[in-house]
Amino acid sequence: MDVFITIILAVLVTLGVVTIVKSFKKKQLVNAQSTILLNKIKKVCKFITVEGDFAEIYHYEDVKQRFLKLITSKKKALVVINAKAHVGYDLSKIQLKSDIDKKKIILEYFPQPEVLSIETNLNYYDKTDGYFNKFEANDLTDLHNEAKVHIRAKIPESGLIQIAQQEALETILLIETIVETIGWKLDYSALKINDKEVKKLQ
């Protein structure tokens, strides 16, 4: 009888130990999944939703003066700027946290759209050097930088930011797809999204 009770106790203890070990391993796995998932979302990083083309004419002029401003030398150029602006979301700025027990990723903050990059191609016309004021390599670099500033200033009135804002839901759907790849759910209820937009997501 004592042997039988001992065997039963041994079996129960073994089952208890196995259950605890399995539970611990499962929790470790869920924790690992959570960490990998959050990193995976942030690695997407910059997500372009809108692309805009610009064609602008830019007048460049630089005047240098010598000999007590008695002599001036002017270099100038007519620059045609062809540019492509990319507007979208920097996903490294989103705020996420995980609910491990419910296997849920909570989206707490979603950033506003921003200009992610501007690609410029410059064509020079009527480029004229001054007598002691000639175009140098650094002048062309400065012109490229000025061209980007010029295009960036045009973006707000182009409507690209507003279009990108309308694409915010598509970006959230992308995140939701990433989350669902490992059987988790995305909770975006903390965001201020109107009823019509929520229906689109559902």
Keywords:
alpha+beta, disordered C terminus, three-stranded antiparallel β-sheet, 202 residues, elongated
Topology:
Elements: H1 2-44, E1 46-66, E2 71-90, E3 95-99, E4 104-109, E5 114-128, H2 137-158, H3 160-166, H4 168-180, E6 185-187, H5 195-201
Parallel strand pairs: 4-6
Antiparallel strand pairs: 1-2, 2-5, 3-4
Structural overview:
The chain is α+β, with helices and mostly antiparallel strands. The protein has one domain. It is built from five helices and six strands, in the order H-E-E-E-E-E-H-H-H-E-H. Strands 1-2-5 form a three-stranded antiparallel β-sheet. Strands 3-4-6 form a three-stranded mixed β-sheet. The longest helix has 43 residues. The radius of gyration is 30 Å and the shape is elongated. The N and C termini lie far apart (63 Å).
Task: Offer a quick outline of the entry.
By secondary structure, the chain is α+β, with helices and mostly antiparallel strands. Helix content is 46%, strand content 35%. The strands form two sheets. Strands 1-2-5 form a three-stranded antiparallel beta sheet.
